[in-house]
Amino acid sequence: MLKYLNKLDWERILNCLSNFIYSEFSKSLSQKLTPIFSYEEAIKAQEKTRFVWKLLEKGENLELNLLKSLRNLFDKALKRGFFLPVELVEIKKWFIALKKIIPYLENSPFNDLKTLYENIKEIEFQLDKILDWEKAEIKDRASYNLFVIRKKLKEARESLFSKLEKIKENLYKKGYLQENLFTHREGRYVLPVKTEYKNKVKGILHEVSQSGATVFIEPASIIPLSNEIENLRHIEQREIVKILKEISQEIFTFSSSFFDLEDIYADFEITFAKASLGRTYKGKFPRLKKGGLINIRSGIHPLLLLKKKEKSFQKIVYNDFIIENGLLISGPNLGGKTVSLKTIGILTLMGQSGFLIPAEEAELPVFSKVFVDLGDDQDIIEGESSFSSHLKSLREILDKADGNTLVLLDEPGKGTNPEEGTALIAAIINELLKRKTKVVITTHSQFLKTLGVKMKDLKLATMEYNLGTKEPTYKLVYNVWGESLAFDLAKKMGFPENILKKAMNYLKNKEYWEWYKVVEEERKKLKEMEKELALKLKSLEIKEKALEEEKEKLKKSYHKKMEELISIWSEEFKRMIKDIKKRKEGYKKAIQYFEDFASRFMENSLGEEEIKEGDKVFVLPFKREGEVLKIKDKMIEVKLGGFKIEVPKGSVTKEYKEAGYTFLGYSKGVIKSEISHKSFNNKIEKKETLKLLGLTVEEALNELEKTLNRAFLEGNTKIYLVHGHGTGRLREGIRAYLKNHPLVKNFKFADPAEGGTGVTIVYLEEKD
Fold first, then answer.
1. What domains does the chain contain, in order, with CATH numbers?
2. Is the dihedral of CA 382, 384, 390, 391 positive or negative?
3. In the chain, pLDDT over 70 holds for what percent of residues?
C-alpha cells in the first residue's frame, strides 16, 4: 500500500516539511515518515500539531536549535571508552535547548520531555563542574591534580619564555637571527637562525626553511625546560582522560534516557515542522471522524500553493471535494482531473497524519487503507504490459479493500480494448461500492459515464471548460458529466482543419452534440446565478468594510479622548501632590485624598473594569506599565520595574493594554506606544573573532592554536585575527605560523573597512 504514496506526492510534501527542521537526525526521520492509518493515532498526532500551532499563533518565541544525534555521540564514545570535550559540549547543548522549550510544554502532549530532563539534569550539573563548554575544554579545577599540573605547566612556560626571550634578544643584536622572534616547530620552541650562523648557536636543529636561508634551532639552555613542559603535557593529558572517563561512565548509565530523549525530541521537532509548514499556506485542521463522507470545502493541493510562492503568475483554483460513496470525474484533457484526484488523496493522508491542510474547512474519515492506481507501472524487465500492471494493482485492491478504504483510480481500463476494459472497471467499481469502499475515478470513457448514471452510489462531476475561450477553468462541477473535448485540444495544438472535420464525421451519434449544447445552455444559466450571488457577496463585503472603518474611527476617538483625560488628570494630580506637601498631611490622610481624587477621575472617564492579580496595567499617576501583585480592599499593590508601590484601584487601567499597546512613557503630554513583532527561527550567522593585541608572539600562537582546533571541531570556517600593526612582529609571527598549519586552507588581510593589515582573516578546512 505504501508504494502508492509517491504517486500522491507524499515524498515531495516530506521534502517541504524538512525545510522547517534543524537537526539532521530529525530530518532523516522525517524523510521516512509514513501516513497514520489508525483513528486513535491520528487524533493524537493532530493534538500534538494543534498544541505547537497554538504556541506559534500566540507569538511564543519557540526557537529550536541544531542538535547532534545523541545515538551517534554515544556510539563514538563507547568505541573509545569516553566522550571527548567537544562531544560533551554537544550534550550540554541538548540541556540548553531543553531548558528553552520545557517551560512551554507543561501539561502538553510532549510532557515526557520534561520528565526525561528531570531524570538526567544531574548530568548537566556535573558537566558544568568540569567543562568550559564555550571553549570545549576541561576546566583547571575539574580535579585537584589537574589544577596542580596546569599551575606547574604555566610556571614552566613562563620560565622558558623568559629565558628564550633573553637568548633571542642577545642573538638578534648580534645579527644571527632572520627575525626578532621565536616560533614553534614539532612541539619545540625554536629560533630562526641565519644559515651562516648556525654553528654560532648551540642547540638542536629541527628544520630548514625551503629557501635554505633559515634554520630553526632549539637553544641548548632551554632543552631541559622544554622537556619538562612536554612531560607535564603528557601528565595533563592523562589526567584529562581520567576525568573524561569518570564523567563518561556516569553518562553511559543514563544512555536509555538519552535515547528516549532523542526520539521524543525528534517527534517534537517534526511536529513543529508540520505546524510551521501549515502556517505558510494558512492551513486548517480537519475534523477527523470514524467513517462518513469526505467533505473538503475550498481545498487545493499544497504543492500548488507552495509553488505559487516561486511563480506568482500561476493560476490557483480551489475546489470543493464531497465524496459520499463514489465520485466519477470526467472532463477535458489538461482540465485538472488527475490533480483533483491527487488533491483528494494527499489532503486525506495529510489530514490523518497531523498536518494542517489547505482548505477553508474539512471533515475527513480516517482510512485504514489507501490505494492508488495512477500512471504507468509496467515492468519491461518482466515483460509486463501497461494494462497487466494496472490489472495487478486492481487485483490487490479487490483483495484488500473494505469499508474503511479509500481507492483512487485515474483513467482505469486504458491499455486494452476500450469496451472490454471499461466493462471490467465498471464491474470492479460496482463491487467496491457494495463494500462501502470510498472510490474516486477519473475517466474519458463515454461508456463508463453512461454506466455511472445507473450506479446508485456513484455521483458524477466534471472539470469545467469554457467553450468561449476554449480554456479549462479547473473548477469541479457536480451532478453533470463532461466531455474530453479532444477536438478542441487538437485544434489548439495546431492540427489541420480537414483532419478535425474528418474525425467529426466519424462520430456516429450526432444527436449527442445537440444534447451537449443543451447542457452548455444550462451551465450558462448556472454561471449567471453564480455572478448574481457574487455581486451580493461583494455588496456585503463593502458594508462589512464600512463597519470596520467606523469601528476604527471610534477606537481612535476613544484613545484620543483617553490621552486628553490623562493629560488633564496628570496636571490635577501634580497640583494635589503640591497641596499635600504644602499642608504637610500625614500618610493616611494623603492616601485618602489620593483615593478620593482617583475615584472621582475614573468615574468621569474610564468606568469600572475587573482587575486581577497578575494583570498588566497602566498606572496613571506614574505613566508607566506595571504588574498587579496583590488586591486589597481599596488599594492595589503594583510592581513598577524594581519597585513595589500601593495605589488606589481607580488609578490603574487595562484599557490601553487590551488595545494592543505597550507603554514606554510620556513625551510632551502624548503617550508613546510601540507594537512588538517577534520573528521565528532566525538563524544568526556567527562571526568568530580572536583578539591578540598586547600578547607576545608565543602567547598569541598558543591562543591561536586553541581557537583553530575548536573552530574546526565546531564547523566554523572563518576566523578574524585582530593583531594590530605595532612593530609587525606579532603579525608576521602569526602569518608564518598559519602558512604550514594543517587546518588552514588559506588566509588574507582584511578589507580596509574591517581593519586592513591589522586584521588577518583565516579560512579553515571543512570537516568531512
1. 13-139+247-280 (1.10.1420.10), 287-507 (3.40.50.300), 545-673 (no CATH), 688-764 (3.30.1370.110)
2. negative
3. 79
